[in-house]
Design a protein that fits this description.
The chain is of the alpha/beta class. The chain is built from five helices and ten strands. The strands form two sheets. It has an eight-stranded mixed β-sheet with strand order 5-6-4-3-7-8-9-10, sandwiched between helices. The structure holds guanosine-5'-monophosphate. The site of guanosine-5'-monophosphate has 19 residues, from β2, β7 and α4.
Length: 193
C-alpha cells in the first residue's frame, strides 16, 4: 500500500453518492509533504516522457500540479472554469460536466500558453467519469500539442472514466485506485497496482 492509499484509509471519508471526501489533506487543506511524495512518484512513472508543461484544472488540481511540477521543472497551466466566455484574446474551450457539482462549465486556456511544440502531462486530483479529463485532452489536442501522460491522485475504479481514457491509448497513472467504497461502513478497498 502506498502513502496516498494509507492516508485515504486514515483520513478519507466516504459520502453517499459515490463521493470520497479528502478535504483534510488533498483538496481543501493540503498536505504538501504528501504532494511532494506524489510528485516523486509521477516523475518515476513518466521518466521517459519529454514533458515540458503540466496542465490541470481549477481549483483542486492546481495545488497538486504545482508541487508535481517541481519534480519536472516545467510550468503549470490551469484551465479556468468560465460560465460565460470572455473572448478577450484567443482561447481554447471545452465543455466539462462537474461530477461533484452536477453542472456544466466551459473550461478555457489562452492559446498563447499551449502550442504544437508542447508535450503535456495532465494532472488532476480525482478521476470519476472522466469528463474533466476529456475536456483537458480536447484542449491539448485543439492546440496541436501532445498528451504525454495523465497523472491522477485518486481514481474511482468503479466509475467509467479510467477505462475509457485508457481505451483511447493514453498512459494514465493513478496513485490510488478505489475499487469499492461504502458510505455505511466507511470501508474503502483499493485495486492492486
Ligand atoms: P469526472 O469529470 O472524472 O467525472 O470527475 C472529476 C472531477 O470531479 C475531479 O476534478 C474532482 O474535482 C471531482 N470529483 C469526482 N469525484 C470526486 C470524489 O469522489 N471526491 C471529490 N472530492 N471530488 C470528486
Amino acid at each position: 500500500m502506498n502513502i496516498l492509499e494509507e492516508r485515504i484509509l486514515k483520513d478519507g471519508i466516504v459520502k453517499e453518492g459515490n463521493v470520497l471526501k479528502v478535504d483534510s489533506f488533498l483538496n481543501h487543506q493540503m498536505d504538501i509533504d504528501l504532494f511532494d511524495e506524489m510528485g516523486k512518484e509521477f516523475k518515476r512513472r513518466f521518466a521517459d516522457k519529454p514533458i515540458n508543461k503540466i496542465l490541470t484544472i481549477e481549483a483542486s488540481g492546481i495545488g497538486i500540479a504545482c508541487v508535481v511540477a517541481q519534480h519536472f521543472h516545467v510550468p503549470v497551466v490551469f484551465a479556468k472554469k468560465a460560465k460565460s466566455i470572455n473572448l478577450e484574446g484567443e482561447m481554447y474551450v471545452a465543455e466539462v460536466e462537474s461530477f461533484t457539482h452536477k453542472c456544466k462549465n466551459n473550461v478555457i486556456v489562452a492559446q498563447k500558453f499551449l502550442s504544437p511544440d508542447d508535450h503535456v502531462l495532465i494532472i488532476d486530483d480525482f478521476l470519476a467519469n472522466g469528463c474533466a479529463l476529456q475536456g483537458l485532452i480536447q484542449i491539448v489536442q485543439s492546440a496541436g500539442a501532445t498528451v504525454e501522460g495523465i497523472g491522477i491522485a485518486v481514481e474511482k475504479g468503479f466509475q467509467t472514466g479510467g477505462r475509457s481514457i485508457r481505451n483511447l491509448g493514453f498512459q494514465l497513472e493513478s496513485l490510488a485506485i478505489v475499487e469499492s467504497m461504502d458510505a455505511k461502513t466507511g470501508k474503502i478497498v483499493f485495486s492492486e497496482q
